[in-house]
């Protein structure tokens, strides 16, 4: 089952539509949820008459609109809706544990106009086992290309598998981006590197990594760009003409808890297309 979260904002509406399309491609049911946080209104000393009924009615209206959007866009998709009570980020993390994918908007109604990534999406992506797709409202231009970050690390394997599957279902090309930078030696600036040799080593490692999946997905057209530069810049540039960017979550906190890494967080902030974060 795919789960989409909505609060009625433009980004959330775009997320519901994206989830409907993906549910149709994967032949999975779609569950749309709206999370209501009643805590700010439950102050016994300063009650607001009728506020509970109002927020419930608003949530039910948001869900009706979402259901209609799914039926209009993908009438063959089985869709259910539910009003859930609680704090949005923890609720969505819990819901995602029982889904194959969670789709959220980049910024909800509570965000600031200048922020590209809202607090809810940033506290969900990378924190759950299911892939999390973050969608921002943008013109629906189809480029027929999926972009995925490639590294020699085993941590990128789930992201690669997800990207190949998406490319197969969409009949799209897959572009792997392998970005690298020379290490900075503060205490030894005289260190000299053979740039061509390093470039060749990165290309070979990325080619081997992609080759393992090309055998499983022979129908997917694959290209590889090995770029000398920061991975964020390379992936953001590629997002200009991509339908989806796929990255791994990668980061780990000081006590070992998995969190969102700096590269994936930056991609979520700056990419110009939907971003899938895969743990």
From TrEMBL:
SUPFAM superfamilies linked: Adenine nucleotide alpha hydrolases-like (SSF52402)
Gene3D superfamilies for this protein: HUPs
Domain UspA: 2-136, 143-279
Domain of life: Bacteria
InterPro entries referenced in this protein's UniProt entry, alphabetically: Rossmann-like_a/b/a_fold (IPR014729), Universal_stress_UspA (IPR006015), UspA (IPR006016)
Similarity comment: family membership: Belongs to the universal stress protein A family.
Protein name listed in UniProt: Universal stress protein
